[in-house]
Every structure is written in structure tokens, then in C-alpha cells.
Please model this.
Amino acid sequence: MAIKFLPLGGAEEIGANCYYVNISGVGIILDCGIHPQKTGTEALPAFDLITDKQLDHVLISHAHQDHLGALPFLIKLHPYLRITTTPQTRALAEVTLHNTISILKEQVPKTDKLDVYTHEEIDLLIRSINYKSYNEDFEVSGYSYRDEKIKVQFFDAGHILGAAGILLESGGKKIFYTGDIDIDNQELIPGADLPDTKIDTLILETTYGSTDSSSILKWHEESQRFASLVNKILNDGGSVLVPVFSLGKMQELLTTIWNLMCSGKMTQTEIYTGGVARKISRIYDYNRYSVRSINPELEISNIPQNDLYEATQPGNFFKNPCIVLASSGMMIEGTASYNLARHWIKQSKSAIFTVGYMEASTPGYKFANAKKGGRIQLNEFTSEEIKCSIENFRFPSHSRREGLLEIVHKLHPENVILVHGEPESISWIGAEIIKSYKSTKVYVAKLGYEIVF
Model:
């Protein structure tokens, strides 16, 4: 049985995650993301690499845009592809893909040939997505190789609602793709559920591979540190801006803040949220009993929160102390968190608290590495003085590097393909696997380079 693996994106980088796997003639695409720091056709996976390949199925691990956002473009090119994901990811995809349309239209240069999809096309796409629950066995077959059946099973990957690790089995060989995975508990989502079987080939994400885990506290410990510093700002009369992703981090941080307030560990104050995050929170609420949940009794939508978009003037956030959760998490230019940060840095009593990974090319990275009293350069022409406090926290939704090695230890694969990480992260994880597991072969996914087993 021949297995071929071809990265179309997400090789030695985080964005545009998309991988082509051919198992005995059946062509499967794992994820189909868009690159958040690129625009137009450059943000898409390298679809030209599969022009002459057998294409049968798309399996989507979760609904973050770097794993899902390019799916409409792929289906335009190959409308016969069958799509399967978890019910929760299907529901989230409907919200996030519709929301992405206006963003793409603003970002795509007029000179670019990229034809942005419409709301009507998204409606049709969502209706075509099949869904399977966690741990439910199902089969996929090819258009050309109908007798070849690939067994598939989704495993709860932690990370966000609906996120799945994907197990593929054929001819006695087992391939497991982690997608984005977190084996530790968050505030809402419990740690990942792994297959209880030996894996032949593991496709492993490496996001935190280069990050020293001593800098990442456990969620509960980090929340205590977060509460202490929030209290200091609020008690001094300031307000706190927290840049978050609308999907996942918003729900986790909002719940963390509310639980801290209810337990008396954080000062009671007004909380602002808004935009698509509220629709996503309702999907979390609807599914709280249908998937594993740390506290299914809690409804995120019942947490008291004001609409940040109704505070028409940024100055309104500073009249009384408050906490503002605003997207995007990496403070991409033009987003609410970026626009608000431009006002926040002028407020000496207030603070910006970052809570997650910041890619080096993003404005969020500049803010996270800035200090009170210093200056920040957000464009090539001007720099601005920073009067507010800036603090960095880590509330990870990806496994620490020791957690990634724990996955390798438990699944004991013969082959490991490293994806979804910067070169330094891939190098660290690869070196540790080679050192600890002499019989395991380690491959670094490289764009356009096929790996054959």
C-alpha cells in the first residue's frame, strides 16, 4: 500500500495549513486554510500542486481560518470534492466564513485576480458539508478507486470547540493528523482525547516547539497572575484591553474573567465584547452538552457583557474602569483590537494585556514587545510614545512542547511528519524525537515536496 503526503501550505509556517494525502489511490485533503498575514492569491495554499492529482475528499480539523478559510476557493476549483468535519466545526464554519467575506474584499488588492466568494456560495458550501461526531467510525472511498475504503475517525483535539484529530486507516496502516491540539485543560475545553492504538505515521503540529515551557504557566496559575495585574489597573482607575481571537480565545478568556469575578479574585467591572464572537459563543452554548466540557452548566451568553461597538467613541472606555475583549488576537491592522490599541497607548492608567502567540510579522508582536515609556513604530513614517502598561500572558490552546513529545510517546509512530510551526519549533521537536526514539523517522514538511511511505 502506497501512502503519499504533499504539503500545499503550513510547511515551516503557521498559516494556510493544507495537506494532500494519497492512500492507495484515494486523494484526501487535510484542512484548507488561508494565511492570515498574506493577501489575495498569495494567502491561499498552493492549489496548482494538485492540478493533476486524484481528489476525492476534504477533511477539516477545525474552524480557525488558517485551517478552513481557503475551502471555498478549493471547492470552486474542484466542486465534486466531498467534505466532512465535526458538527460543531460545520456550525462554526457557517459563521466564520460569512464573516470573512467582507474582510477579504477589503484586503484583496484590486490588481489581484482572486475572485472572493459570495454569501450565497457559502450557504451552498455549508449545506454540502457532511458531519461526523467524535469517535464515530465512517468510511471514505475514491471516485476512481471505489473498492478502496479508508476508515476515518475524529478524536477531540481540545484547542477549540469541534477541533478534531483525524485518524485514517487502510491496509492495516494508521495515520493520525493532530490538527491543532492541546492535551491540557483550558477554562471551557478539556484536554485532547488521543487514539488508544499504535500509529504508523503521525502528522504533528509544532506551534510551541521553540517556546520554553517554563514561560507558560498552567491555565489556573496564569489566571491568578492575570487577575492580580487586572486588579491593579482597575483599582488605579484604568481600563484593560485584551486582544483575542473571536473563535476560542474570546470564549475561554471571557469565561476565565467571569469565574475570577464570581470567586472574588478579580474586581467586578464592566466587560465589553462584540462582533462575530457573540454568535460563536451561542454555538458554544448550544453544544455544551454534546461534547466534553469542563462546566456544561455555564452559558457564555449569560455572562453580563456590553457591546464594544455601541461605545461609539474610544474615550467612553476610559470614563469608568472596564475590560475590553476585542479581536483580532494578533492585532492585525484595521481590526478592533488594533484600532483600540492606538488609543490605549495614550492612557497612562490603562493597560494592554496580550494573552497568546504573536507571529513576528504582526502588529501584535510589536505591541507585545513594547514597554511603557518607550515608542512603537506602526508604520514607516511615524512612531508613537507608549504611556499605558503592556503585559504579556500565555493562555495556550496548543500543546506545550513537552505535550507534543507526550503525544509521540503515547502513539509510538514509525514516522513523524512535522507541520504547522516556524523552523525553530520544528527543529527543536525533531531533534528531541530523534534523540528519544531511535527507530522513529522524522520528516520536515516542505511546500511542494512529496513524502512517500
